[in-house]
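Please decode residue identities from the backbone states below.
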């Protein structure tokens, strides 16, 4: 299959002005463009969404979704094998093979996560969470599920926290952070536009900022006081967050366990009270 980026370069001299601006951005930042929706790509390229639609047709793709699929193939084509999904998207795959592939992927990812885990940074992050006036936990999509897991853990042991799920509310909360607050921003790609906005505002407000992203270079990490990492095991063309989500949850469990050791007596008391309250019929 021909390279989409090669096709864009070939047509660059004859593209209309607006479409050329879109092409220039995609060629200069393909790793970022592959994660953007059409509105965000239009914003980053400083053109209209209609221009993006015309650009996609002009370069021979069937629409924006097809454009992203072809671009993702180009972006990840030269990546080391470890960055590719371990479970191939194949029709009629043997169920036993599917199960084994998933288990093998998780085992490899956990071993990889152990090598990435920085005990010093995890300790610093724990101190930030423990001493914060309030902890805000941010994430959308699959990362929102991880954020909610952290929220329910912290709330059970009495650590002040909030985890709004609505994207606009998350940005609003970030705009109102202060120096005594801690923000934990979870984003596997580290390029999700809303989470970049949250990270930028947290940085502007001088709040303590912890990020949890994939290990590859990304924009979100540039705002962080502490950057926690998970293995980059998945690419954009995947059926959903799988092993990456499990790695993120493992890091959340690490932070939670460290917090328990720092506040063991009060945590046990809080856990006992919440257990009694929620099971009192």
């Amino acid at each position: 299959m021909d390279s989409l980026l090669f096709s864009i370069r070939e047509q660059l001299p004859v593209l209309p002005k607006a479409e050329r601006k879109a092409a220039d951005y995609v060629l200069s930042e393909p790793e970022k463009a592959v994660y953007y929706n059409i509105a965000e790509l239009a914003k980053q390229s400083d053109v209209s969404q209609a221009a993006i639609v015309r650009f996609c047709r002009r370069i021979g793709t069937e629409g924006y979704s097809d454009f992203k699929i072809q671009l993702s193939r180009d972006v990840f084509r030269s990546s080391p094998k470890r960055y590719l999904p371990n479970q191939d998207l194949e029709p009629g795959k043997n169920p036993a093979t599917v199960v084994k592939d998933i288990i093998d992927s998780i085992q490899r990812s956990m071993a990889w996560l152990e090598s990435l885990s920085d005990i010093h940074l995890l300790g610093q992050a724990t101190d930030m969470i423990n001493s914060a006036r309030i902890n805000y936990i941010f994430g959308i999509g699959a990362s929102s599920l991880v954020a909610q897991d952290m929220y329910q853990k912290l709330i059970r042991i009495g650590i002040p926290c909030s985890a709004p799920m609505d994207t606009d509310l998350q940005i609003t909360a970030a705009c109102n952070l202060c120096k005594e607050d801690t923000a934990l921003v979870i984003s596997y790609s580290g390029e999700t536009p809303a989470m970049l906005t949250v990270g930028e505002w947290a940085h502007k407000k001088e709040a303590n900022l912890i990020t949890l992203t994939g290990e590859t270079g990304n924009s979100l990490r540039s705002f962080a006081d502490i950057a926690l990492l998970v293995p980059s095991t998945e690419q954009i063309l995947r059926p959903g967050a799988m092993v990456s989500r499990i790695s993120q949850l493992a890091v959340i469990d690490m932070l939670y366990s460290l917090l328990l050791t720092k506040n063991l007596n009060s945590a046990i008391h809080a856990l006992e009270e919440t257990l009694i309250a929620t099971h009192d019929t």
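Observation: The CA atoms of residues 233 and 244 lie 6 Å apart.
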